[in-house]
Design brief:
It comes from Salibacter halophilus. By secondary structure, this protein is of the alpha/beta class. The protein has 2 domains: 138 residues, Medium-chain alcohol dehydrogenases, catalytic domain (Quinone Oxidoreductase, Chain A, domain 1), CATH 3.90.180.10; 157 residues, Rossmann fold (3-Layer(aba) Sandwich), CATH 3.40.50.720. The protein has 12 helices and 15 strands. The strands form 3 sheets. Strands 3, 4, 5, 6, 7, 14 and 15 form a 7-stranded mixed sheet that branches. A 6-stranded parallel sheet has the order 10-9-8-11-12-13, sandwiched between helices. Strands 1-2 form a two-stranded antiparallel sheet. It is globular and about 55 Å long. The structure holds NADP nicotinamide-adenine-dinucleotide phosphate.
């Protein structure tokens, strides 16, 4: 049994090694899964670059999600049986031929959903669903602003928002992505490399133009975006991609804090709006059954063709460096998948 280990930070060509990997039998409530496909997430790139706080110590097997077949069932997980085709949230350990997963964050996958679409559902679609439905509680006719709108989570947020009848403003960093956003039904696509998104949104839509912002960028994008939120609005911060490329030193940390800007709880009271942080790892730790419920819901919506993951690239395990390179290049639109 093999796994792809992250052995050092930096260049993807030198960072990974395919190594023998010994795995424990599944404990109580756990499943042993023969992995067929696993997905990449932007957090993997940050972990590889050594700037992801939640990353396990090296050498480590990354990976938040896997699709495969159940090989063995631990006690208390008998709602699954050997041979079931499943999607599992793995909370690291996904880049492996076998993984052990919590049965509460594993769902059966219908044959209508491909392996690649399945891995897209676990982290990116569940993050989007949790953010949009449980946290922001988006409503028909609300206007939502989605940053990194052509990324995996961004596409998922767009599909959920359109399904619920919202108007969507989406930002992306290339004309190719803008064309893709138009195809996805984004009402106001903005190439933030060509125009300042906040100025552009105000010019098109007024002084307090959005009900909800979904922000995985942080820093100045957060500060400038926050001023656009209407009374009663919600600003969901679920990533800090602007931290990419930083050296992680004290000066970079101070700059990031400065870019975010200072906030006081009273200002939320006065404006009757709020900022909510989302980290799915914390949800998985304290509320695994809630994550399981969300997984079941996104699988159901994908089975009904309401949610349709967009697959940007499929790679073999030995091409892991190329897969990482694609994700880091910011040219990817949708999910990057690796198959064993
Ligand atoms: N909190 C959670 O639980 C959770 C869960 C999943 C994902 N996330 C976060 O959500 C974000 C998107 O994830 P994803 O899986 O959708 O990733 P993705 O598909 O790789 O999309 C990321 C996109 O972010 C945009 N971006 C903007 N500024 C960037 C920067 N400085 N560096 C790199 N990319 C930048 C890029 O698109 P443009 O060039 O078009 O802007 C890039 O393609 C990441 O920050 C990730 O860590 C958080």
């Amino acid at each position: 049994m093999k796994a792809i280990y992250l052995v050092k930070n930096g260049d993807p060509k030198k960072a990974f090694e395919l190594r023998d990997h010994k795995i424990e039998s599944p404990g109580e409530g756990q499943l042993l899964i023969n992995v067929e496909s696993f997905g990449l997430n932007y957090a993997d790139v940050m972990a590889r670059n050594g700037i992801y706080n939640d990353a396990p110590p090296l050498p480590a097997v990354l990976g938040y999600e896997a699709v495969g077949r159940v090989e063995a069932v631990g006690s208390g997980a008998e709602k699954f049986k050997k041979g079931d085709r499943v999607l599992a949230f793995t909370q690291f350990g996904g880049y492996a031929q076998q993984c052990v997963a919590d049965s509460r964050t594993t769902v059966k996958l219908p044959d209508s959903i491909s392996n690649s679409a399945g891995v897209a559902l676990a982290t990116q679609y569940c993050t989007a669903y949790y953010a949009a439905i449980r946290m922001a509680n988006i409503q028909p006719h609300e206007r939502v602003l989605i940053h990194a709108c052509a990324g995996g989570v961004g596409i998922a947020l767009t599909q959920l928002a359109k399904w619920l009848g919202c108007e969507v403003v989406g930002t992306a960093g290339s004309d190719q992505k803008i064309e893709f956003l138009k195809e996805q039904g984004v009402d106001y696509p903005i190439n933030y490399r060509k125009e300042d998104f906040a100025t552009s949104v105000r010019a098109k839509l007024g002084e307090h133009p959005v009900d909800v912002i979904f922000d995985p960028i942080g820093g100045k994008t957060f500060k400038n975006g926050n001023k656009l939120v209407r009374f009663g609005g919600r600003h969901i911060i679920f990533g800090v991609s602007s931290w990419s490329g930083s050296k992680g030193n004290v000066f970079d940390k101070l700059k990031l804090a400065w870019d975010f800007g200072l906030m006081h709880p009273l200002q939320f009271l006065l404006k009757s709006n709020g900022v909510i942080g989302l980290n799915m790892l914390r949800i998985a730790e304290q509320n695994p059954s809630v994550l399981g419920d969300v997984m079941a819901k996104v699988v159901e919506l994908a089975d009904q063709n309401i949610l349709i993951p967009h697959i940007r690239g499929e790679f073999k395990a030995e091409e892991i460096a190329d897969a990482h390179h694609l994700l880091e290049s910011r040219n990817s639109i949708g999910k990057v998948v690796v198959n064993w």
